[in-house]
Design brief:
The chain has 559 residues and is of the alpha+beta class. The chain contains 23 helices and 7 strands. The chain is 65% helix and 8% strand. The strands form 2 sheets. A 5-stranded antiparallel beta sheet has the order 3-4-5-7-6. A two-stranded antiparallel ribbon has the order 1-2.
Length: 559
Amino acid sequence: MIALAVGFQGAALGLAPIVLTVAIAIRAAGLDDRYLTWGVFAAMLICAAITALQAIQRGRFGAGHLVLTWPAAMFIAIMVAAVSAGGPAMFASLMVVCSLVQVGLAWWLPTLRRIITPAVSGTVTMLIAVSVLPIAFDSVRDLPAGTPPVAGPAIAGVTLLVSAIVTMRASGRWRLVAPFISILVGCAVAAGFGVLDGERIASANWFGIPAVPDLGFDLTPGPEFWALLPSFAILTLVLGIKTISDGVVIQQGSRRQPRAIDFRQIQGMVSVNGLGMLLAGIAGTLPPMSNSSYSLSLINLTGVAARRVGVGVAIVIAALAFFSKFAAVLLTVPGPVLGAYLMLAMGILLVSGCQTIMRDGLDPKRVLVVALASALGLGLHGHPVTRDLFGEELGGLLGSGVTIGALVAIGMTLLLEATSTRRSRLDVTLDMASLAAIDDFLAGLASRLGWNESSTLRLRSAGEETLAVLLSQEESHAGTERPRLVVVARPQDTMVELEFVATTRHENIEDQLAFLTDDAALPSAEELSLRLLRYRASAVRHKKFHGVDIVTVQVEGNA
């Protein structure tokens, strides 16, 4: 009963974004009311299913946490472009094909971690927000013929003003229902101008399943499909990266005691989101996305982070999907109110992109990546130069600022990675017999860097203790084949970053270091290596993925 009660509160937070986001996308794409009603119904069921799957966690699928899910507003602009170019069938085909991108990202996350950086994902997120904003302002003029010109700006302005006041002044649960309050006030203003139509509510059934529109796939893709595919793939990749960021935040906020991030659960979260995109493509609606801010708000307000609450949320949303009258109420929201809602959502997304960029700091190289990608993405968005290069039709499709900015950001990151300080690499087996090779490797590295004797000893000792910690549980599996160990060294000014990549059965080293106490009388043999590693290294990070562990050790040195 507690799970259902908290689940009802979580469902209440997600209902407005689910219905309104899909309504904005389908109206902007010019599809009819039959498609609109079906799209909202399908989105509610898909978001309910994905929320439940994230909570349940089976194998490599699922986050094992309470993750509120609703449609991704970042796909509104690309949905409009796809439907305009080839109809709903082409949009569905692109969604199904690109759902594999998220699943691939989840499986290859260890390999892609140095390419899809916070600078890349943050820049693309900001470009997405800027590209969707014109749709929000076009919605302000979405009113019946004969309506006074001042009606749209007045309705949208009051909606934004109320939303800002409630968000700034309210606290607790009132802060979470700020969107509902602003939508109600906006609808009241719209009623004063005589543009609020209640016919949809009156004609809607109380319960039932809406009529299914003509759904299908484009099995003979043309030039428009191939032109839009890069934009869809990049946007899907960004959605997966945002899911990773949300998963990290949700894990941190769901635990009483701070622990290192379990990237196996992050991989499961991205995989389930890819499954949701596949279902959305089949149903012809927007793909789902996680929302960490609302998930953590629900956890903080209720004090409940149990993952079974996610199942409670899913049950409530799925039940309301069949309550047709409720969806009809939200679908009668006028265009200017929807536009104001979307403006605020894209503004928040823009700030989220900035925060993502700043997460790892901005050195001159990252500034160059962000500056060049943003300048070209914003400047070439819809610019005639793309049509001059690729032709009128293809150039119009390829002239998306999101696509251009993403390609530039990824290309610049690859270039900087290739031209950075030359890295050194050593391949051995995870065995104590490899200690001599690792020691020689690190001693030679320190010699090339010109480090003094004490710094060289510190580097060699850090390598030895890291190997000892990784081996501490492997010895109980002596009969099995020893896993491969790859040591990668990246010199950076007065510091060397060592990466130990292996397949182990060990607990997270970060957690073990955090739980060490300095007042132990006689530390065990296993703790001794941890204590020495903590003493020798300036920072230790351990990321556990499915099938691979990556331990990053930073060691300071002097010439």
